[in-house]
Amino acid sequence: MRTIEKLLIFIIILLVLLIGLGFLVGKTYVVEEKEGKKEISERGTQNRTIQKLVVKKEEGTPSQKPLPNPPNIIKGIYLTSWSGGSERVINRVIAKSKESGVNAVVMDIKDFSGRLAYKSDIPAVQKYGAYEEKIKDVNGVIKKFHENNIYVIARITVFQDPIFSSARPDLAIHDTRKVSSSSPPGVETLWQDNHNLSWIDPASDEAWNYIFAIAKDAAERGFDELNFDYVRFPSDGNLNNLRYLHFNEQIPMRNVLRRFFANLRQTLPDTKLSADVFGYTAIMYENDLGIGQVIEDAYEMFDYVSPMLYPSHYATTFLGLDNAAKHPYEVVQYTLNHAKKRLAVMATSTRERTVIRPWLQDFDLNGVPYTALMVKSEIRAAEETLGETYAGYMLWDPENTYTWEAIE
């Protein structure tokens, strides 16, 4: 037993001496960050790594930088956030891009549901549970698209937002039929559109800050552009029963949106921003369509203005046609002619970099199937009408099943 005890004492003394020697030669342990991986390394006096002790698994893809040389002419397609979170869909889009020339994707990061499509540290998003992790690694998705020279646009649905309006009914639109002295504005009194979705009051500055926080987060992740949709007052549902808590109905709706646009631009002065507007905004003069959208107001504050030129959404007899949906070239040409002329009138006062880049239809509606020839007609109309100012287009299909042969 004594022999064993002596041996143990000897070993302990030896270990103490070795540790002391390590300190004498200046050996320390440091944590390094290398390409997103944390490494604990043992360093000597020459400040060189002697032995790597621990390597932790990479914690997600770091934020990216926008493409250094983005395409001048966009050939883009829309992707839902579910598609943006699907490796299979992403790989298919990349493969098709090499065949068709598609060089951009517009991906939902906040859609009609009001939920952010990925985890975020934004306090309000965390507080209200306003996210659903459809995209596990959004920075990684951006990186993969960028590695294949694909321009990535983040689409943000703004004022149509059932999550935020339910969490903050004090900042939402309410239904006059539900509000009474015994039922003050609350979750139960929220107004809903034809899709049973509630809305944020477009005049609420506090709600704006929520949108701006999401936009800033997206910009910092490396999206090349931020696209804002539903930047308007409600257009469908029982509009006679709208009860606003912040909007002063004595002032024009367009004034509210103009102020929102200006604050958005001030918040993100160096970020590429685009706005989606109804196609009719280009052809209706001195008229905000009852939703606050006037195309000149968007021209002043956005890099790209994107009228939604879906022939199936126009009145059937538009331009005296038998069915506007069956005449894509005529509808797109007529609308863009007006949009182009109105921008030209503002050339001396508007932001010089403002460009018209339309949404085009690639979906069937009301019994009119959209063929490759019809999609090609839309693209040709846009290119021929905009001429030297042509900057491409974005195709919309809510199911993300595109007529690839029309793009080639």
UniProtKB/TrEMBL annotation:
Query: Which keywords does this chain's UniProt record carry?
Result: Membrane, Transmembrane, Transmembrane helix
> Which Gene3D superfamilies does the record associate with it?
Glycosidases (3.20.20.80)
According to the entry, every stretch annotated as the DUF4015 domain falls at: 76-402
Q: Which domain of life is it from?
A: Bacteria
Record Pfam families: DUF4015
- Annotated TM spans: 7-25
Known SUPFAM superfamilies for this protein? (Trans)glycosidases
What protein name applies here?
Answer: DUF4015 domain-containing protein
Instruction: Name its species.
Output: Candidatus Jorgensenbacteria bacterium RIFCSPLOWO2_01_FULL_45_25b
Q: Which taxonomic lineage is given here?
A: Bacteria, Candidatus Joergenseniibacteriota
